[in-house]
Each structure stands twice: as structure tokens, then as C-alpha cells.
Amino acid sequence: xxxxxxxxxxxxxxxxxxxxxxxxxxxxxxxxxxxxxxxxxxxxxxxxxxxxxxxxxxxxxxxxxxxxxxxxxxxxxxxxxxxxxxxxxxxxxxxxxxxxxxxxxxxxxxxxxxxxxxxxxxxxxxxxxxxxxxxxxxxxxxxxxxxxxxxxxxxxxxxxxxxxxxxxxxxxxxxxxxxxxxxxxxxxxxxxxxxxxxxxxxxxxxxxxxxxxxxxxxxxxx
Length: 222
Hints:
Blueprint lengths: L13 E7 L9 H9 L3 E2 L2 E8 L5 H13 L3 E7 L6 E4 L1 E3 L26 E3 L4 H10 L4 E4 L6 H13 L8 E7 L12 H17 L13
Parallel strand pairs: 1-3, 1-4, 4-9, 5-8
Antiparallel strand pairs: 2-3, 5-9, 6-7
């Protein structure tokens, strides 16, 4: 079994960013296209490693755990596609529920099952989402804080990531999930790939530079 390195042995200059393969009959997934574009870039002095995760319950978490051990990142940003959203969505909460409306890419369709049996009901993100929101809006990128990542594989991976990062061996590693809109060729609402990539770059840069999230000022942020 793969074992995580001690905190002292981690590679402090690595950011792991993941995207999903296409699902639900689609031939594209903007999350993976954006992550592929970011792979190999340097953001705030850190090397970005982009990786694809299968849209499959269980297998997705196995792959994520392997990537954590392989790359020993200081920051993990999982991304996924959110149809019907016009903005880059910074997810706040991951819940311990799998409840699939459609089958995953292996044909599984779990209904009301836990992501982690016996795990907490929910986890909050470890990303500074309010500071990231401000940075995105200041950069003229349409963005929002979202209170739900759904109950499909995106939430499954979000919850699984936060459960992993709650373990002592991953102390100090931060992470969370960001949803991105469809590409224009998929339908509306949508966002151009170049803007999605720029938005993720801004969000990652902010996360790396922000130790403590900003507090909401009345009427300032959503």
C-alpha cells in the first residue's frame, strides 16, 4: 500500500490540480481541458501538476490518493464541470452522500450511500474562498461562492479529498473543489476555455498567497 510522506519530506513547490474525464454522453469536460492547460505552469513559484480523474465512484478517490502520494503537494485543487452555472463556483461544503441522478462512467448509480462510511456528515473547504472570490471579481472573472457541490462524483471527490487531508499525515496541506461552467460548444450558460484557465490561475495564485481567508463585509461579497 502507498504511504504518504512525512510533512518534512513533502515537495513544497507543487500544486496538484485535477479535472474529470467526459461523462453523461458528452465528449468533452471543461475541467480537464483547463487542468491540461495549467499542467507544467508555475504559479506563485510553485509547479502545477495537472491530472485527470475518472468520473467513477470509488475509483476516483483511489486515483486521487495515488496522486497525493506521488506528488506530495502543498495545495490540491480539484475541478469539475457544473452544467447550468455561468460562473466559476468556489465550493464551500462537501457532504458525506453519494446520490447519483445518472450513472457514472462505470455504470454505477449509488443512491443515498456514504462517501466514507462512519465519516463526518460534512467538511468545509480548506481554500480561502472569500479571498479567491475577491481576486476573481477584481480580475473581471465571473465567480461565486457555492454552498453545494451536488451529490455526484464531484462531491464524492471533494469529500474524499477533505477526509484525506483531515488525517495527521497530511497536516498543513490545503485543498478544495472548484466547479467550472460548460464551454460554449456544450450549450448555455458557458464560459470560454481561456477565461476558465485564467480564472483557475487567479484562484490558485490567491490560495497560495493567502494564509487566512478574509471575512465577509456587509454587502461586499456573496
